[in-house]
Design a protein that fits this description.
Two copies of one chain form a homodimer. The first copy, chain A, is mainly alpha-helical. In chain A, 61% of the residues lie in helices and 8% in strands. Chain A binds a DNA duplex through helix 2 and helix 4.
DNA sequence: ACAAATTACTTCGTGCCACGAACAATCACA
DNA sequence: TGTGATTGTTCGTGGCACGAAGTAATTTGT
């Protein structure tokens, strides 16, 4: 009889927590979860639809609508790609960039709070291991590298 | 300039990973994410709609449809509550229980794999800290307690 | 150079998910 | 016995995601 939670269970619960935080912070910025994810993937550079959809793990047809709605809300624009006339590049508008930053900052703060009760050394070890585990995962949420 | 990933970024990426695994395993069991989550919350006992909706973090009106669809697929049944004639209890059917177990087992295996590359002591420490962080989170994914 | 295959994106139809407002039935209690 | 709360549902709206099919532009093979 171990009293410790299984790893799988812990991971699922953590995911549940983070998902809810993500959605909540998103609502505060008037963003849906999908929109927030998209903005995070756009960061500062502009990206073609194909690359963006593979980053987000979506079919291209799904992304079309997502970009449509985000564009209608003025978060994003489609730009012609001079290199390839079929291609479209998606870029943040100033409003989209502002929304992204608010979202990013607030979410980062809330997530950090989650670990704040841990003793510093345990927290550092945890973060470090976390980094190893997600090393090859898509960078859906970059650190403030600016 | 730290070269380590920020904690927030790591948490988001991990969540992204687990979410995708969750969805993928769900698809393999012919379950949507929402359905899988519901089945996990039902586990073995039957629960009223109100309690279930608060476990899942959904409005009651959202749950109605979710249960409807799951019932149509034969995963779940609505039972009368003898104590309260307004109330409805949701319970797993044998098919629902089977689906849940397949889902649970497969997901657990895939999640454990995620940590398998870590050295044992680091993994144990990580799991333990994980347990602390999610201590007060809803038990959306119980360990095999059977 | 030119037909064929590939790539980039969109459209359309379908289904699921989630919300809030409004509603009926039942319960609790004072 | 009422009055107020609680349980669950319906309805309307909007977002999300998929796959199949279609259009336009680029690349490849010969």
């Amino acid at each position: 009889m171990k009293e410790t939670l299984g790893a799988a269970s812990g991971l699922v619960r953590l995911t549940f927590l983070v998902q809810n935080l993500y959605a909540e912070v998103g609502r505060g910025c008037d963003l849906t979860t999908a929109q927030a994810q998209m903005l995070c993937s756009l960061a500062d550079r502009s990206i073609g639809m194909a690359e963006l959809s593979s980053m987000l793990g979506l079919e291209r047809s799904s992304l079309t609508g997502l970009v449509d709605r985000a564009q209608q809300r003025g978060l994003v624009v489609r730009e012609d790609d001079p290199q390839d006339r079929r291609a479209v590049k998606v870029a943040l508008t100033p409003a989209g960039s502002a929304a992204l930053h608010r979202f990013h900052d607030e979410l980062t703060e809330r997530l950090d709070q989650l670990l704040q009760e841990l003793p510093a050394t345990e927290r550092d070890r945890f973060t470090k291991t976390l980094g190893r585990v997600v090393a090859d995962a898509p960078a859906v949420f970059a650190d403030a590298g600016s």
